[in-house]
Amino acid sequence: MSTHWTYAFVDRPVPRFAQACDFWTAVTGSRLSEFRGERREFVMLEPSDGADACVKAQAVASGPGGAHLDFCVDDVRKFARAAEALGAHVVADQGTLVVLRSPAGQLFCADPWRGQSARPPVFRGSRLDQICQDVPPSLFDAEVAFWTALLPDWESRSGSLPEFHVLVPPAGLPVRILLQRLDEERPAGAHLDLACADIGATRAEHERLGAEFVAEGRSWTVMRDPAGGLYCLTGRDPETGGPPSAS
């Protein structure tokens, strides 16, 4: 089962959705498409250079929001059946779009591929290129096995720390997956990661746009966007997604 494109979804609560859209268009160098959905809850962040979009935003009616992935495939039904056979559950079947939940509880969607192929460029030294799925310890191994089996054309490998596992898509796909084993048993979640040529410079720009510093990691900085959503600035190379030495 081949994946031809991926979308990172910025999921934020309805009351602060406009703030989220303003912030994420600013930091990705994009503009908003027309809103769609029954409640105008979906919007695409369109690159200004004519490349294909790979980031969307969704206004969520309850909860704090987070992030999720859309996989664009040739056969949505086949992809959904394969996911179910591996332990996923269908949340909603909307015909051309199927919403699923992974064994650990992470939402994701299967969507038809519509020919997307041109990845947006790095913008001001950074690129939103990763969804980090935060998985409770008891479900981590099963979640790694699930994604590895569902995405056989992706490279599945251990990360830079024992609590990380990375799934790198085929060349040209814009969003990859990082699985992170949590320190405690709590519900699974997900957040956005940006690869940055200079974390300090990107942090300063994001703070100017209303984001707040939360914490410092070994090679990442945790931030909170103006809509209250957590995300990370990482020291990965924004062109390759790998460590700086890989550039």
Structure notes:
A hairpin with a 7-residue loop joins strand 3 (42-47) and strand 4. The longest helix has 12 residues, at 17-28. With 247 residues, the chain is of the alpha+beta class. It is globular, with a radius of gyration of 17 Å. Helices cover 17% and strands 39% of the residues.
Distance between the termini: 30 Å
Mean pLDDT: 96
State the low-pLDDT regions, or none: none
Taken as a percent bin, the fraction of beta residues is 35-45%
Going across the major beta sheet, what is the strand order? 2-3-4-1-5-8-7-6
Helix run count: 4
* Major sheet summary line: 8 strands, mixed
Please estimate the helix content: 10-25%
* SS elements, strand count: 16
Shape: globular
Element string (H = helix, E = strand): EHEEEEHEEEEHEEEEHEEE
- The class by helix and strand makeup works out as alpha+beta
Gyration radius from CA atoms, angstroms: 17 Å
